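Run log // design_07
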């Protein structure tokens, strides 16, 4: 059974729905450890106090905010509990907004929002109302010593909750926000639309895979057997000079999305001189 990451109430007017949050998505990656090249031992990072010149236990550690160089305001767990906002135990819906008005740039982490047994009827009522109105709910919730602004969206199986970045966390990049507008030719736009149509398909997330991670797993398996993996051949790319020509060739070419990446080629270990001699004797 999955472990919930937050438990409390979803407040909607005078309704309070007891709920739990479960992590909906988690990044997967292969972790490589840092080893000592000489003996292949794993490098450890001990908790060390340079003033006391000794290792310290986790029970000796407290939190502190550095307001000046080497000057800290200290915090205990009790101090942090005192300033815990109401959203640590209940998330109140602040307003409802149209789902398609939310810029995906603001989305951060995703969670499943499920009701407790006694809140199922109110949960279903709110879910159905949001589905039919095409509204999403904006609320606040405190998790992991941070108050998040969140959006709650209806889905076929229930509600999902997405933590969002605050406006102050959205970075402005001059190269993106101050781009010079270049108006393409009408024929170029027409060909670009044809190229989009040729690659159009229903969204099926199960089609996409992390090919780099798959290659990493293949390399791990090969190295365990004393084999090598041939390197990937990367195509040479250059800036497009003739836009119309590139669009026409792209439309006529087979869509890249349908092409399957060839599997990694395993190279058997090179034969030793002794093995070569024994091989010649056997054939002689």
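design_07 sequence
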């Amino acid at each position: 059974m999955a472990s919930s990451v937050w438990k409390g109430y979803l407040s909607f007017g005078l309704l309070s729905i007891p709920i739990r949050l479960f992590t909906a998505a988690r990044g997967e990656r292969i972790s490589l450890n840092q080893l000592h090249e000489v003996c292949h031992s794993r490098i450890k990072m001990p908790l060390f106090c340079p003033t006391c010149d000794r290792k310290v236990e986790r029970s000796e550690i407290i939190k502190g905010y550095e307001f000046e160089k080497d000057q800290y305001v200290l915090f205990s767990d009790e101090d942090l509990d005192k300033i815990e906002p109401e959203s640590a135990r209940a998330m109140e819906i602040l307003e409802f907004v149209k789902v398609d008005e939310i810029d995906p740039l603001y989305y951060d982490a995703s969670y499943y929002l499920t009701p407790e047994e006694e809140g199922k009827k109110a949960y279903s009522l709110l879910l159905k109302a949001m589905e039919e109105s095409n509204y999403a709910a904006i609320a606040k919730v405190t998790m992991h010593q941070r108050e998040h602004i969140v959006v709650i969206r209806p889905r076929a199986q229930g509600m999902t909750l997405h933590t969002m970045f605050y406006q102050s966390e959205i970075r402005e990049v001059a190269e993106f926000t101050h781009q010079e507008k270049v108006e393409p030719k009408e024929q170029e736009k027409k060909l670009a639309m044809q190229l989009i149509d040729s690659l159009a398909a229903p969204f099926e997330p199960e089609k996409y895979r992390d090919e780099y991670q798959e290659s990493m797993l293949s390399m791990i398996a090969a190295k365990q057997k004393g084999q090598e993996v041939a390197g990937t051949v990367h195509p040479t790319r250059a800036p497009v000079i003739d836009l119309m020509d590139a669009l026409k060739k792209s439309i006529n070419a087979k869509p890249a999305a349908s092409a399957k990446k060839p599997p990694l080629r395993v190279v058997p270990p090179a034969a030793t001189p002794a093995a070569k001699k024994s091989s010649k004797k056997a054939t002689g």
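The first strand starts at residue 6 and ends at 12.
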